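User: Fold this; tokens only.

Assistant: Input:
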Amino acid sequence: MPDRSMPIFASPADMNIRLPKVIRDFKQPEGAEIAKIVLIGSPNVGKSTIVNDLVKSNVSIVSLRPHTTRERIKAVLTQDNKQVLFYDTPGVVPEKNVSRLNRELVTASWKALEDSDHLLVVMDCHKLLEHGKVTESYIFERLGKMEPKIPATLVFNKIDLVKGKDEKLQEIAQKYQQLYPNFVKTIYTSANTPMVGIQELRTHLLSLTKAGPWLYPAEQKSDQSHLKRVEDIIRSELYGAIKVPYSIKQVNTGWTELEDGVLRIDQNLVVDRPGLKKIVVGSDGAVIRDITLNSRQLIGKALGRRIMLSLQVKVKTPKN
């Protein structure tokens, strides 16, 4: 049995592991084309799931909890001579709610538009028909003021949750077309049925590319660093397991190549108080054990190698 204990002189991930992956020396295809696409929408409408389905890789974490995506995540779709870059942004939050969230989180979606060729405006069909539309109204107010106007595609997601209400959705789509005349297409996708509308959306977006050099080699799916992907996967599992994930800080304490080819990753989960530690650890360690097991499997798949993962829950030391 190989020794996979944490070495005495183990060190955290270095800058090569922490920095975004940038590969500059790769061969450009003949007639290379590219497009930069930004997704915007209210929290929890399914933007991250759509991105993952489009690029056929889990590059953006998915959770039922709003604001799982905390910063722009660049995903890459490459087919033939075409490359499409996706910027999956945090859910849009009206300015009146800025005090509740980090300002950078609130403004990230709109900053991303500055570098885009096309917008994907994603709406939750169920919410549009059954609930208030405060955030949606705010999005279209901001779009209306935006200069220059950027071409866009309207994506009505979770169509499976509103069967039989197609006529009403078409009325809403027409209303949004009037509010933002730069929509070139409306596409319907599903929340629970994989790939419904995704192939249509992928084909449509690939048709938007224009002549220009690729920014990434064909095999690259994201520019996220290895550490960022690891931390996102762990955070997603935390969000799924407990009800208070926003008070947990991740600190990498070990990124160690073991002799048998296994990568050992050591992370501290730092919480504010002992009571929260009990919640994260769970009865007899059941919660943190499940989080560790699930995360290890997903990290191994994401990095394409065998992983040993150690998660330790720590209480933040009070400042004197």
